[in-house]
Design brief:
- Helices cover 13% and strands 30% of the residues.
- It is α+β, with helices and mostly antiparallel strands and 102 residues long.
- It has a domain at 32-98: NE0471 N-terminal domain-like (2-Layer Sandwich).
- The strands form two sheets. The protein has a three-stranded antiparallel sheet with strand order 1-2-3.
- A hairpin with a 7-residue loop joins strand 5 and strand 6.
- The radius of gyration is 13 Å and the shape is globular.
- Bound molecules: zinc ion.
- The site of zinc ion (ZN) has 7 residues, from loops.
- InterPro entries: GBBH-like_N (IPR010376), GBBH-like_N_sf (IPR038492).
- Keywords: Iron, Metal-binding.
Length: 102
């Protein structure tokens, strides 16, 4: 089992066929756009109180892609999606943990 450093931060993020992240500790992650969009943690995709996902995965375009992304502080990445959804902020920890579940 790979040990995840709590302070792992991206060295480089490249938006290509998927999201490629090179972490400062040398680990590399590939995350599909659809999967990441589907995991959007914002208030319109997840019920803030119950933590339950309210986003219907079927409403996500299969060819979803980010139009741009920006760093939020030094802890997260904000993605502007091609379906005009831009309220999702993905913490690095979530991104880092993402490819462990696939
Ligand atoms: Zn969302």
């Amino acid at each position: 089992m790979l040990k995840v450093k709590k302070k792992a931060k991206p060295e480089k993020i490249i938006l290509a066929e998927d999201i490629y992240i090179l972490w400062q500790d040398g680990h590399e992650s590939h995350i599909s756009y659809f999967d990441l969009r589907d995991a959007c943690p914002c208030a319109s995709c997840v019920d803030e109180l119950s933590g339950e996902k309210t986003l219907d995965s079927n409403t996500i375009p299969k060819d979803i892609r980010p139009e741009k992304s920006e760093y939020v502080g030094n802890y997260a990445l904000r993605v502007y999606w091609s379906d005009k959804h831009d309220t999702g902020i993905f913490h690095y920890k979530v991104l880092r943990d993402f490819d462990k579940s696939t």
